[in-house]
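Please produce the structure of this protein holding zinc ion.
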Amino acid sequence: MVKLQFLGATRQVTGSRYYLEADGARLLIDCGMFQEREFLERNWEPNTVRPRNLDRVLLTHAHIDHCGLAPKLVQEGLRSPMVTTAASADLVELVLRDSAEIQAEDVAFKQKRHRKEGRRGKYPEKPLYTLKDVERTLPLLQPAPYDRMVDLHGGIGCALHDAGHILGSAMIELSLPSNGQSRRLVFSGDIGQWGKPIIRDPSVFAEADYVVMESTYGNRLHADHGDVEAQLLDVIRQTMDQGGNLVIPIFAIERAQELIYHLSRLVRAGQLAAMPVFLDSPMAAEVTEVFRRHRECFDAEAAEMIASGRSPLGFPGLKVVRTVAESKAINRRQEPAIIMATSGMCSAGRIKHHLVHNISRPDCTILFVGYQSRGTLGRQILDGNPTVRIHGCSRLVRARVAQIHGFSGHADRAGLLRWLGHFQKPPRQLFLTHGEEEEALALAAYVRDELGWNVTVPEYQQVVELD
Ligand code: ZN
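Below is the modeled complex.
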């Protein structure tokens, strides 16, 4: 008998975690951190599964909502390997270290505030885990190649397939022995968009007995936003004509490298004059190095660029900024420049300093290329607020604010249906996870009514038996 339990990303989008028990083997697929405010306490709940008893942990990709609780599992006794792609293993290392550092800073800040106010907060004044826990986690990462079925434990086969979401991202195919037959389970992980730069397209499957699929955009279509590169060139030219700086808040993984890729193509095609471009984020710089080390994940176009001696992730003019002093020096410069810095929603990091120096200058542009959550500084700027608070001071927003859509890392409804459309016959059951309740339910209704499939939208901690 096979038992599957949904331990996260149920009718919400973070905390991906699934427990699978089959013929005595115990597996965990992903162990993501919950990030929505109302679900944060789930990060602190004791595991319903004893980590010590797990035979394997399988990781789909390096985003924190898919791998972020790994050090907590280790803290609670996990000793077995965590299987993922080689590129993901390298990215997971960066992401977990970063997460431990952020938690340590948050805790210090919280303790200080609570001491001052003489009260206690809702969550414990300690981090979920520390750098020490991360160091104990890293040796457990076990890289596996794409598209090769490997024996996991007790005759269970596992293959990782490209998910097209971020570098190293994978869909997980499991083959479970059962009474002389085998059953096939597919976990989609996060499904990327077709035709993204650098990485390959999502893999598709012709058959499976059970499928667990994400549904982030289960009820939405990405508008056709046209040619991203042409829009980027437009924004750059307009800003340079005015003699100002172009400031771009970036996400360290994937979005930063995609931008570098587009800029590199524009420079090499002679459409963009060589000019200073700063990548001001130590994390994004390290991630870019991981990209350079993992060409095996590149798509044909990026591979061809390399074969013909051009780097898809570098060009004359690109300056990678590491130290704080170098970062500060950018704002003493006179000539116009492109400044890319983290964090992507402007809630922390070096981007705030660059906003302080540029947001009140009408000749500058602030360009958004990623989703801005409600309540973040990025969202306030994007929403057109005439003033915003940065570092405790009110700032006039006089810079031009621009946005380029089309960079999303997730397939939209049409993409999800395209992925499902490759199955030659309906699986016995399709489980929809990793989507807000209304997105997941809307997609479920469509697949049930139009395709006639069995579809379930699981609840938190729901257990299903697969036979
Ligand atoms: Zn993701």
